[in-house]
Q: What sequence folds into this?
């Protein structure tokens, strides 16, 4: 009985502040917990969005610069020497990993070109997979918040409305002025869920498309570079 009265007092307490902060401070502790969780999730999502925006922008720029240098006519050996001494990712990392396998095979005593093409393609496939994993990291967080955020907010709303109806039963006061504050607090939880979920869903779809686009560029370059090395392998085997 005391718990019911406490709920009623919480839900029907006089509302002096109808701002968002006021609604939060007057909400039940369960609804507050839901709101805080959604706020933290929203901040986390925005941090990921900014981080991924910068990452994809830098990755695109690096690919453009590398393609410009690669197709400028510079020898593969010179390009490999300039890139092998630093940390590489993206298309440059793909080139370095393939050239490293190429040079290891050439420097091995009693070298054989049998299977070299398959080994180079395997190395490039693994490098592409690692690059895709790097680009996709943390996108699962956006997908999770985007799919579960509205339901978490709905849970806060349902709990808040249940609290409001319990207060009506305890006080027998059905006036709109008495019920509206509790319902407003409950609906605020749903709004928080949508605020967290909508940007997360939009960003996830955008970044997922960007990952596919960059993966396609990497696979296209791998096919072209594999063809170049295949011609060189044929020339050396014929010599």
A:
């Amino acid at each position: 009985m005391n718990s019911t009265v406490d709920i009623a007092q919480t839900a029907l307490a006089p509302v002096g502040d109808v701002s968002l902060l006021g609604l939060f401070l007057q909400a039940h502790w369960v609804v507050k917990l839901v709101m805080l969780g959604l706020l933290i999730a929203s901040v986390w999502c925005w941090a990921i969005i900014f981080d991924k925006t910068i990452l994809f922008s830098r990755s695109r720029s690096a690919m453009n610069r590398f393609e410009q240098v690669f197709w400028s006519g510079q020898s593969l050996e010179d390009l490999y020497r300039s890139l092998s001494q630093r940390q590489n990712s993206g298309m440059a990392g793909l080139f370095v990993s393939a050239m490293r396998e190429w040079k290891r095979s050439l420097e091995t005593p009693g070298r054989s070109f049998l299977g070299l093409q398959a080994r180079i393609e395997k190395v490039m496939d693994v490098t592409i997979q690692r690059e895709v994993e790097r680009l996709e990291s943390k996108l699962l967080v956006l997908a999770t918040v985007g799919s579960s955020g509205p339901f978490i907010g709905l849970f806060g709303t349902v709990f808040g409305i249940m609290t409001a109806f319990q207060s009506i039963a305890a006080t027998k006061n059905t006036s709109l002025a008495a019920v509206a504050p509790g319902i407003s607090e409950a609906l605020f939880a749903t709004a928080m869920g949508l605020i967290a979920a909508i940007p997360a869903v939009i960003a996830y779809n955008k970044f997922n498309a960007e990952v596919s686009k960059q993966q396609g560029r990497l696979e296209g370059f791998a096919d072209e570079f594999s063809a170049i090395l295949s011609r060189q392998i044929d020339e050396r085997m014929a010599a």
Observations:
- The mean pLDDT is 82.
- Residues 231 and 237 are 10 Å apart (CA to CA).
